[in-house]
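Re: weekly structure request thread

Next one in the queue (366 aa):
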Amino acid sequence: MDNLTHTLFGLTLARTPLARAGRGTTAALVLASNAPDIDIVAVIRGTDSYLRWHRGPTHGPLGIIALGLLVAAIVRLGVPLLDRSADEEAVAAWPMLAVVSMIGVLCHVLMDLPTSYGNRVFSPFDWHWFAVDWMPIIDVYLLSALGAGLLFGSVSAAARRRNAAIVLALMAANYGVRGVAHRQALVAAPRIFGPLLPPRCDTALSHGGVVDYWPRAASLTPPVTGKRCLVELAAIPTFFSPFKWRVIAQLSNAYEMHDVDLLDSRLRQTPDSSEAMWRVTLRVPNVWTPPVWTAASTPLARSFLGFARFPAARSFVDPTGTATVRWNDMRFIGARLALSPTQNDPFAVVVRIAPDGHVLDQKLGP
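Done, posted below.
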C-alpha cells in the first residue's frame, strides 16, 4: 500500500489498547508502519539494485524483528531528548515499545500482501513474490475510512477507541467485498474470453488457493507441444470500484486482457453473438525468440523478470541484425500502452543485442 495509508493505519492502531503501553506508542506505530519501505535506499545503486531488493528482507521475518527493535530504540531514546518535560516513567518501556513496533511492521507487511503488486514475505529465505490480488496499491475506500476515523470522535479516549474499532471493522468489510469480487471475476473468465481461452498447458501450475506466487518456471518455458494453451489466469483490481477488474489470461504465446464490471448485466444474460464480450479482448504478443532468451540472461533483465509477474516479450531485428528486446509487465499496462509499447512505461526493460550476440545496451523504462 501507499505510505499515506500505512501512516493513517499506524495512527489508528495508536487509538487501540496498544496505546496503553505508554508514551511514545503513537510515534513507534507510525514509524514502524512505514519502516519496511526503507528499502528505497537501494535505488542509490541504480534501478537494477532497487528491483532486486524491493520488498525483500525488510518485508520478511528478519526485517519484522530487526526493524521493530530499531524503531523501539529510536523512540525510547528520542522521546526524552525531544521532550525534556516528559515523565520518564510515562514513557513506554523498551520491551513494550519493541512489541508494539513489531506489530506495526507486521501490519505493514500484511497490508502489502493483498495487493496485486505483491510482497516477498519470506525473504531472504525465499525470494518468491506472493500476492492475493484483492487490493490496488492505493484504495480510496481504505483511505476514506482511516481518515474519517481519525478526524471524528477525538474528544475522549473512549471515543477514539470506539472509532478505531469501527474503522477496523470497515476495513475488514472492504477486504471481504474485494475478496468475493475477485473470486467472481475469475469465475467469469470463461464467459469473458469465450473461444479465445484455450485449454490449460500441461506445465501450468494450478495452486487453487487464495495466494498466488511468482516467478514460475512454467510461465517462461514454452510448452513442449508448441500448441497454444493457457498458463495462468489472474484478476487485477482497479483503483476506484471493487467490482471492476482487469482479467489477464497468460497464454503460451501471448496475453489476453479484458476489463470486466461484475455489475454488467451481460454476465447474467446470453448476448447476441455480435455483442459477445470476448470481441473486445486485448491481445499482447509474448514470443520468446532466440534474441529474447539471450537478452533474458543480462543482469537487468534477470532482475526485472524476477520482479515482473506477467512479463510480455517483444523483439525486433533491424536490417543491420541488431535485435531490440522489450518486456512490459502486464499488471501495470493499460490499453494505450499495450497498443503502443514504446510509450513511457516505468515497468519495462529494453535490451539491445548486437548481431554477434553481445549486449549493446540495457535500460529500465521507456
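The mean pLDDT is 86. Residues 246 and 259 are 4 Å apart (CA to CA).
Next request, please.
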